[in-house]
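Batch manifest, entry 17 of 40.
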Amino acid sequence: MKDILKSFGIIVAVFALTLIACQPEPKPDEIPTPTPTPAHVHQWGDWSQTTAPTCSKTGVETRVCSLDATHKEMQEIAINPTAHVWGEWVAETEPTCTVKGKGSRVCTLNSAHKETDVDIPALGHDYEWETTTYATCSATGEETGTCTRDGTTTTRALPLNPNAHDWEQLAGTPPTCTETGSGSRKCTICNTTETLNVIPALGHDYQNWTQTTAPTCTTAGVETGTCTHDATHTTTRTGAAALGHDSGEWHITLAATCTAIGTRQLRCTRDQFVLDTQTIDQLPITNTSNWTDALQQISEGGNNKNYTLTINSDASGIAVPGYWDYADNVSLTGFTFGSVQNLTVTLKGNGKLFLSDRGSIIRLTNSQNFILDSENITLQGLRNGQNGATQDNYRSVVVVQVGGTMVMKKGTITGNTGTYEVTIEGGSFIMEGGEISDSQNYSGGVYVTDSGTFTMHNGTISNNAGNAVQLYSSTFTMNGGLISDNGGCVAIGSGSFFTMNSGTISNSENIGVAVTNGSYFTMKGGTIKDNNSVGHGGGVYLGTGDGGNFIMEGGIISGNTAKNYGGGVMIGTGTFTKTGGIIYGNDGTKNANTGSNGHAAYWFNPARFRNTTLGENDNINTSSTAGWGQ
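Output type: structure tokens
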């Protein structure tokens, strides 16, 4: 029956194929349009996190369609308030190997997130291991670990080493460290025996390592090991690490003095390596011994040097010896800084230097320069009853001889009696500031002689008993400053030259400027005012010897008074030429009732006067009568 059905099925199939084969092919315009495949329904996979959320930002998770991997779907993952990225611990109590510490840390994603007073995990031991008992063929070994942080030690076993026999040669030739042997041998540990035609060379077994070269600050130490097979065989290996330099100790390499800074070095105590070098501040001068030591160091220090001395004294000051040009009941002769050349010494600080005996505090010679450069420094002369003195001085506080230079930027020179505060004997004096004052007993401010030069840019010369400035065969240039309230005048004699470009000369008790003995005074600017004369010429006086020469190109002469002739200018002997400037408001009272007293100017011979103001363009001179008699 089954065979019949099978045969029938074959016949049906053949018939169907025949029918299909007999069908005619369709024409092109009869081919049907295919029906489009409908869109599939997504078959989504599981959600997968693609961006993790943090404590301050949301995350993202994604899923993918299993039918088309280009189809994806994403959704947000909520902020995870515990997903911090913590910074380093800031320890309040440092952890140890076994004990927790305490500290705080800040999240790097949001600084507002902090953990404070939190346990810092214990560090745990950090062991460095060293074999203390080597394993053999029948016994375990041991190594000891030492913690690099706290020195704690522990041990651990080393497994058996089946090859670590201790062979004893029984017959034949025993091997050495470097050469093979032959015959039979027996292990002294496990009694294993073996017979070999070739017994391998033992190789070196270096043990008993000992330090043979100690480590230094910069190089590691050296250890030497001895072979257990042959004690004549040794080798070396790097031992203890280099120590590194320690914190060191300070050593003074050059002691500071009152004339120079010092130096010190920080040296490692192990190898004296110099870790740091520092300067030591120059010492201040606080007493007489400091001053005399400093002068000796300068005088012995050689040529071409610059020094800065710093005074630091209390109100009582520092007593210093005087220098004189010859021995005459004085303690020191010569020059303050010896005979060194091309020297510059600057004096700064706070306090007072005063003379303890006759002489000069500063006495300069050729190529020596002294700069007074502190408004709080006073150089005080010698006066009976002053600072315990029992005599007056007969030498200036400062003397500058030929080739020497003093620059006064600030400070005070005062308190001398018997002669001027400053004497320039062929040297140079430049006054840029400061004050020269209070000389007594007919003593004056500045005396310039022997072709010396005095240039005044600023500062004050005041309240001296004698002349404010006196010149003999020298030059004075006034570019500014104030000369005021002195007992005497600016006296120019013996062929000297005075040029006044600016500044003020006022309130002298006897003439403003006196020009005598063939000297020249050129006034280009500045003011001569309110000076008084007990004789002739309140503002400017020309006369005596070869007379004086006064050329007025600018400036003002006013408010001066003479008891005799010439309130403004008195020409006794000499020449006067006015090409500029103003002379007004002066008073000569000799012939007040006759009107011939010469308020502005009086020309003694041939007696001519000018009472009215001489303005900028009212120019007169002593070579013509024009402009006189008014």
